[in-house]
Amino acid sequence: MFPNQPLTDEELDELDTFLSSESLPKESMDIAMLDGFLTGIVIGPNTLTPSQWLAAIWGDSDENPMAWQSAEQMQRIIELVMRMYNDRVNDLVEDVDQYDPLIYQSDNDGRIIPILDEWCMGFIRAIQLDPEGWQPLIAAEPEQEGGGLLTPMLLYGTEEGWDQLKENERLAERHQDFADAIGPCVIGIRDYWLPHRKEASTFRREEPKVGRNDLCPCGSGKKYKKCCGSAEKLH
Protein backbone atom coordinates (compact mmCIF):
# COMPACT_ATOMS: atom_id res chain seq x y z
CA MET A 1 0.00 0.00 0.00
CA PHE A 2 1.45 3.35 -1.05
CA PRO A 3 0.92 6.48 1.10
CA ASN A 4 -1.88 8.63 -0.25
CA GLN A 5 0.12 11.83 0.12
CA PRO A 6 1.18 14.28 -2.61
CA LEU A 7 4.88 14.36 -3.38
CA THR A 8 6.84 17.08 -1.69
CA ASP A 9 9.01 19.38 -3.82
CA GLU A 10 12.05 17.40 -2.66
CA GLU A 11 10.42 14.12 -3.73
CA LEU A 12 9.46 15.56 -7.11
CA ASP A 13 13.09 16.59 -7.56
CA GLU A 14 14.18 13.09 -6.52
CA LEU A 15 11.90 11.50 -9.12
CA ASP A 16 12.92 14.04 -11.76
CA THR A 17 16.61 13.32 -11.10
CA PHE A 18 16.02 9.60 -11.48
CA LEU A 19 14.07 10.01 -14.73
CA SER A 20 16.77 12.33 -16.12
CA SER A 21 19.53 9.80 -15.48
CA GLU A 22 21.56 8.82 -18.54
CA SER A 23 21.52 5.22 -17.30
CA LEU A 24 17.82 4.88 -18.17
CA PRO A 25 16.66 3.64 -21.60
CA LYS A 26 16.33 6.47 -24.12
CA GLU A 27 12.54 6.09 -24.19
CA SER A 28 12.20 7.00 -20.51
CA MET A 29 10.00 9.98 -19.61
CA ASP A 30 10.95 13.19 -17.88
CA ILE A 31 8.82 14.58 -15.05
CA ALA A 32 6.60 16.76 -17.28
CA MET A 33 6.02 13.89 -19.69
CA LEU A 34 5.18 11.65 -16.74
CA ASP A 35 2.57 14.14 -15.54
CA GLY A 36 0.91 14.19 -18.96
CA PHE A 37 1.09 10.41 -19.13
CA LEU A 38 -0.49 9.86 -15.71
CA THR A 39 -3.18 12.42 -16.47
CA GLY A 40 -4.09 10.56 -19.66
CA ILE A 41 -4.18 7.28 -17.75
CA VAL A 42 -6.48 8.71 -15.08
CA ILE A 43 -9.05 10.33 -17.39
CA GLY A 44 -8.98 7.82 -20.27
CA PRO A 45 -11.92 5.72 -21.46
CA ASN A 46 -10.81 2.52 -19.75
CA THR A 47 -9.13 1.72 -16.45
CA LEU A 48 -5.57 0.51 -16.99
CA THR A 49 -3.70 -1.30 -14.24
CA PRO A 50 -0.18 -0.23 -13.22
CA SER A 51 1.18 -3.44 -14.74
CA GLN A 52 -0.01 -2.10 -18.11
CA TRP A 53 1.71 1.27 -17.91
CA LEU A 54 4.52 1.38 -15.32
CA ALA A 55 7.23 -0.04 -17.59
CA ALA A 56 6.50 2.63 -20.22
CA ILE A 57 7.63 5.34 -17.81
CA TRP A 58 11.27 4.26 -17.82
CA GLY A 59 11.18 2.88 -21.35
CA ASP A 60 11.57 -0.72 -20.27
CA SER A 61 11.39 -3.14 -23.23
CA ASP A 62 12.93 -6.36 -24.49
CA GLU A 63 15.34 -4.28 -26.60
CA ASN A 64 16.14 -1.81 -23.81
CA PRO A 65 15.59 -3.53 -20.46
CA MET A 66 15.52 -1.43 -17.31
CA ALA A 67 18.48 -2.15 -15.02
CA TRP A 68 17.64 -1.23 -11.43
CA GLN A 69 20.52 -0.63 -9.06
CA SER A 70 18.70 -2.50 -6.30
CA ALA A 71 15.31 -3.76 -5.19
CA GLU A 72 15.19 -0.81 -2.79
CA GLN A 73 15.64 1.67 -5.62
CA MET A 74 12.88 0.04 -7.64
CA GLN A 75 10.51 0.05 -4.67
CA ARG A 76 11.26 3.71 -3.91
CA ILE A 77 10.71 4.92 -7.48
CA ILE A 78 7.50 2.94 -7.90
CA GLU A 79 6.26 4.40 -4.60
CA LEU A 80 6.91 7.94 -5.86
CA VAL A 81 5.20 7.27 -9.19
CA MET A 82 2.15 5.69 -7.55
CA ARG A 83 1.81 8.59 -5.14
CA MET A 84 1.99 11.00 -8.06
CA TYR A 85 -0.65 8.91 -9.83
CA ASN A 86 -2.90 8.87 -6.75
CA ASP A 87 -2.49 12.63 -6.43
CA ARG A 88 -3.70 13.06 -10.00
CA VAL A 89 -6.66 10.79 -9.27
CA ASN A 90 -7.56 13.05 -6.35
CA ASP A 91 -7.08 16.16 -8.50
CA LEU A 92 -9.44 14.86 -11.16
CA VAL A 93 -12.40 13.60 -9.17
CA GLU A 94 -15.79 14.28 -10.70
CA ASP A 95 -16.70 17.44 -8.80
CA VAL A 96 -13.39 19.26 -9.39
CA ASP A 97 -13.41 21.75 -12.28
CA GLN A 98 -9.79 22.90 -12.43
CA TYR A 99 -6.56 21.21 -13.39
CA ASP A 100 -3.00 22.56 -13.50
CA PRO A 101 -0.53 20.57 -15.62
CA LEU A 102 3.05 20.17 -14.48
CA ILE A 103 4.90 21.66 -17.44
CA TYR A 104 8.32 23.18 -18.05
CA GLN A 105 8.73 26.91 -18.59
CA SER A 106 11.40 29.03 -20.23
CA ASP A 107 12.37 32.62 -19.53
CA ASN A 108 12.64 34.67 -22.70
CA ASP A 109 13.88 38.16 -21.71
CA GLY A 110 11.63 38.18 -18.67
CA ARG A 111 8.68 36.64 -20.48
CA ILE A 112 7.71 33.21 -19.15
CA ILE A 113 6.83 30.82 -21.96
CA PRO A 114 5.26 27.43 -21.22
CA ILE A 115 6.90 24.44 -22.92
CA LEU A 116 4.10 22.09 -23.92
CA ASP A 117 5.85 19.37 -25.91
CA GLU A 118 6.92 17.05 -23.10
CA TRP A 119 3.60 17.11 -21.23
CA CYS A 120 1.62 16.56 -24.44
CA MET A 121 3.93 13.75 -25.57
CA GLY A 122 3.28 12.01 -22.27
CA PHE A 123 -0.47 12.35 -22.75
CA ILE A 124 -0.20 10.92 -26.27
CA ARG A 125 1.74 7.95 -24.88
CA ALA A 126 -1.19 7.24 -22.58
CA ILE A 127 -3.52 7.28 -25.59
CA GLN A 128 -1.23 4.87 -27.43
CA LEU A 129 -1.77 2.29 -24.68
CA ASP A 130 -5.48 2.16 -25.54
CA PRO A 131 -5.87 3.48 -29.12
CA GLU A 132 -9.14 1.67 -29.75
CA GLY A 133 -10.70 3.05 -26.60
CA TRP A 134 -9.67 6.62 -27.43
CA GLN A 135 -10.72 6.44 -31.09
CA PRO A 136 -14.20 8.03 -30.72
CA LEU A 137 -12.68 11.17 -29.21
CA ILE A 138 -9.79 11.26 -31.68
CA ALA A 139 -12.25 11.02 -34.58
CA ALA A 140 -14.75 13.56 -33.18
CA GLU A 141 -15.33 16.54 -35.49
CA PRO A 142 -15.16 20.05 -33.99
CA GLU A 143 -18.95 20.40 -33.99
CA GLN A 144 -19.46 17.03 -32.28
CA GLU A 145 -19.36 16.31 -28.57
CA GLY A 146 -15.74 16.23 -27.45
CA GLY A 147 -14.49 17.68 -30.73
CA GLY A 148 -11.32 19.72 -30.29
CA LEU A 149 -10.56 18.57 -26.75
CA LEU A 150 -7.41 16.78 -27.90
CA THR A 151 -6.18 19.64 -30.10
CA PRO A 152 -3.36 20.90 -27.80
CA MET A 153 -2.14 17.35 -27.16
CA LEU A 154 -2.17 16.38 -30.82
CA LEU A 155 -0.45 19.60 -31.89
CA TYR A 156 2.38 19.51 -29.35
CA GLY A 157 2.65 15.78 -28.75
CA THR A 158 2.86 14.31 -32.26
CA GLU A 159 5.09 14.73 -35.31
CA GLU A 160 2.07 15.65 -37.42
CA GLY A 161 1.19 18.39 -34.96
CA TRP A 162 4.74 19.77 -34.92
CA ASP A 163 4.63 19.93 -38.72
CA GLN A 164 1.39 21.92 -38.56
CA LEU A 165 2.91 24.38 -36.09
CA LYS A 166 5.96 24.85 -38.33
CA GLU A 167 3.91 25.37 -41.47
CA ASN A 168 1.14 27.51 -39.99
CA GLU A 169 2.45 30.71 -38.43
CA ARG A 170 -0.96 31.80 -37.17
CA LEU A 171 -1.36 28.49 -35.40
CA ALA A 172 2.06 28.84 -33.78
CA GLU A 173 1.16 32.35 -32.60
CA ARG A 174 -1.62 30.84 -30.49
CA HIS A 175 0.90 29.06 -28.28
CA GLN A 176 -0.29 30.71 -25.06
CA ASP A 177 -3.92 30.01 -25.97
CA PHE A 178 -3.13 26.31 -26.31
CA ALA A 179 -1.22 26.37 -23.02
CA ASP A 180 -4.20 27.95 -21.27
CA ALA A 181 -6.54 25.42 -22.90
CA ILE A 182 -4.81 22.29 -21.54
CA GLY A 183 -6.47 22.48 -18.11
CA PRO A 184 -10.02 22.96 -19.44
CA CYS A 185 -9.40 20.29 -22.10
CA VAL A 186 -8.34 17.79 -19.45
CA ILE A 187 -11.55 18.44 -17.50
CA GLY A 188 -13.58 18.18 -20.70
CA ILE A 189 -11.96 14.87 -21.62
CA ARG A 190 -12.58 13.53 -18.12
CA ASP A 191 -16.26 14.46 -18.38
CA TYR A 192 -16.51 13.03 -21.90
CA TRP A 193 -15.35 9.59 -20.77
CA LEU A 194 -16.98 9.63 -17.33
CA PRO A 195 -20.26 7.94 -18.39
CA HIS A 196 -18.28 5.26 -20.24
CA ARG A 197 -16.03 4.60 -17.25
CA LYS A 198 -19.02 4.37 -14.89
CA GLU A 199 -20.80 1.94 -17.21
CA ALA A 200 -17.67 -0.18 -17.59
CA SER A 201 -17.23 -0.36 -13.82
CA THR A 202 -20.79 -1.63 -13.26
CA PHE A 203 -20.93 -5.41 -13.12
CA ARG A 204 -23.93 -6.99 -14.79
CA ARG A 205 -24.84 -10.60 -14.03
CA GLU A 206 -25.91 -12.32 -17.24
CA GLU A 207 -27.53 -15.29 -15.44
CA PRO A 208 -29.46 -15.57 -12.15
CA LYS A 209 -27.34 -16.30 -9.09
CA VAL A 210 -27.22 -19.95 -8.04
CA GLY A 211 -28.48 -20.45 -4.48
CA ARG A 212 -26.62 -22.69 -2.04
CA ASN A 213 -29.57 -25.12 -1.94
CA ASP A 214 -30.32 -25.03 -5.68
CA LEU A 215 -29.37 -27.87 -7.99
CA CYS A 216 -25.83 -27.43 -9.24
CA PRO A 217 -25.78 -26.06 -12.81
CA CYS A 218 -23.12 -28.60 -13.73
CA GLY A 219 -25.89 -31.23 -14.06
CA SER A 220 -24.71 -33.60 -11.32
CA GLY A 221 -28.11 -33.64 -9.62
CA LYS A 222 -26.55 -32.56 -6.31
CA LYS A 223 -27.23 -29.34 -4.46
CA TYR A 224 -24.81 -26.54 -5.38
CA LYS A 225 -23.39 -26.42 -1.82
CA LYS A 226 -22.56 -30.13 -2.02
CA CYS A 227 -21.04 -29.95 -5.48
CA CYS A 228 -19.29 -27.07 -7.26
CA GLY A 229 -20.13 -24.70 -4.42
CA SER A 230 -18.42 -26.75 -1.76
CA ALA A 231 -15.34 -25.46 0.01
CA GLU A 232 -13.23 -28.13 -1.69
CA LYS A 233 -14.48 -27.47 -5.21
CA LEU A 234 -15.36 -23.77 -5.17
CA HIS A 235 -14.30 -22.22 -8.47
How do you describe this structure in short?
The protein has 235 residues and is mainly alpha-helical.
Describe the structure.
The structure is a single chain. Strand 1 (104-108) and strand 2 (111-115) form a beta hairpin. The protein has helices at 9-19, 31-43, 50-57, 71-91, 117-128, 131-139, 151-157, 159-167, 169-172, 175-201, and strands spanning 104-108, 111-115. By secondary structure, the chain is mainly alpha-helical. It has a two-stranded antiparallel ribbon. Helix 2 (31-43) crosses helix 5, helix 2 (31-43) packs across helix 10 (175-201) and helix 5 (117-128) packs across helix 7.
Core attributes:
mainly alpha, 10 helices
Strand content: under 5%
Strand elements, count:
2
Distance between the termini: 28 Å
Largest sheet: 2 strands, antiparallel
> Mean pLDDT score, rounded?
84
**Regions with pLDDT < 50 over 5+ consecutive residues?**
203-210, 228-235
Radius of gyration: 23 Å
| Count of runs of 4 or more consecutive helical residues | 10
Label the overall shape.
globular
Could you give the order of strands across the largest sheet? 1-2
